Amino acid sequence: MRLDKFLKLSRLIKRRTVANKICTAEKVLLNGKIAKPSANVNLNDIITLNLNNKEINIKVLKILNITTKESAAQMYEIM
């Protein structure tokens, strides 16, 4: 699954266009490397978001194509 789509479906970022902009601004790392919005996200990957001078590390637990509010929270774990 694309990184920008994962961020949107997991509800970490509200809109995919915003997720795309954050990725192109080099504020997202995937396994320690700067990631493009089209980067492929796999299970157990570590995503680091640098938002508002705050760093959030997330471990990918599930990849779902359709999510509800409850299932979106099960897609990742904040480390």
Give a verbal description of the structure:
The protein has 79 residues and is α+β, with helices and mostly antiparallel strands. The chain has one domain: Roll (Structural Genomics Hypothetical 15.5 Kd Protein In mrcA-pckA Intergenic Region, Chain A), CATH 3.10.290.10. The chain contains three helices and five strands. The chain has helices spanning 3-9, 16-24, 69-72; strands at 28-30, 33-34, 46-51, 54-60, 76-78. β3 and β4 (54-60) form a beta hairpin. The radius of gyration is 11 Å and the shape is globular. The two termini are 21 Å apart.
**How would you spell out the order of helices and strands?**
HHEEEEHE
Strand pairing plus helix content: what structural class? alpha+beta
CATH superfamily: RNA-binding S4 domain
Mean pLDDT: 93
Number of individual domains: 1
Give a quick account of the main beta sheet: strands, pairing sense, barrel closure: 5 strands, antiparallel
C-alpha termini separation: 21 Å
> What order do the strands of the largest sheet run in, or round the barrel if closed?
2-1-3-4-5
CATH class: Alpha Beta
* Overall 3D form: globular
CATH architecture tag: Roll
Q: Count up the helices.
A: 3
Number of strands: 5
Strand content: 25-35%
Enumerate the spans where pLDDT stays under 50 for 5 or more consecutive residues: none
CATH topology: Structural Genomics Hypothetical 15.5 Kd Protein In mrcA-pckA Intergenic Region, Chain A
What's this entry about, in short?
By secondary structure, this protein is of the alpha+beta class. It has helices spanning 3-9, 16-24, 69-72, and strands at residues 28-30, 33-34, 46-51, 54-60, 76-78.
